Prior knowledge:
The chain is α/β, with parallel strands linked by helices.
Amino acid sequence: xxxxxxxxxxxxxxxxxxxxxxxxxxxxxxxxxxxxxxxxxxxxxxxxxxxxxxxxxxxxxxxxxxxxxxxxxxxxxxxxxxxxxxxxxxxxxxxxxxxxxxxxxxxxxxxxxxxxxxxxxxxxxxxxxxxxxxxxxxxxxxxxxxxxxxxxxxxxxxxxxxxxxxxxxxxxxxxxxxxxxxxxxxxxxxxxxxxxxxxxxxxxxxxxxxxxxxxxxxxxxxxxxxxxxxxxxxxxxxx
Length: 239
Ligand code: UDP
């Protein structure tokens, strides 16, 4: 284990990471591929907490702009994250990886309630803990939920998975001369309004001194290489 830089991490995947190229909300092959990445980490002895968004199915703010009550639409968004969590649980179990879905909303016949001590116990036993239903409150995002859970479970690092290499001054898919930042502070990300996470999530990480890596999850084996000490993606720190 000496070559591994972290014992416990929190990995945040957006719901869109599960989508097929054709636009299907959940692509089983992609979920299976991501599950294998997570299993490889567990096999190396790393404890993994997972938060998966719900944007591939529903975003509360978007539905609210179409006329739905915001609280109701956010509750629908939180339920969407449970659907994704169940898909990931299934994929991990298929690979033989023990896993538990824990939700911030009570859905006891489908998954466990989120209880911090129990979550930590699952991690210690080598089970992946998938934290679903965000924070359980409307008006928040799963990025904030990921920051919160990472701090609660004492994760040494939060990894925010993206489709690009890391943090840029602008969207590199749209702006040709966007500048890549290998390292930055939370205050820089907030002040320059870099499109990393919402401010609530950034402030939570900053104030609790939780370092974060923003990196491309679709580069096979990249998370494992990061765990072995390679400098991959962008590192965001307090100072
Ligand atoms: N959501 C919420 N409270 C939370 C987390 C999420 O109300 O604590 C709702 C919100 O409507 C959000 C949706 O769930 O739009 C899906 O989460 P998010 O947009 O963060 O997913 P991602 O963009 O990561 O796929």
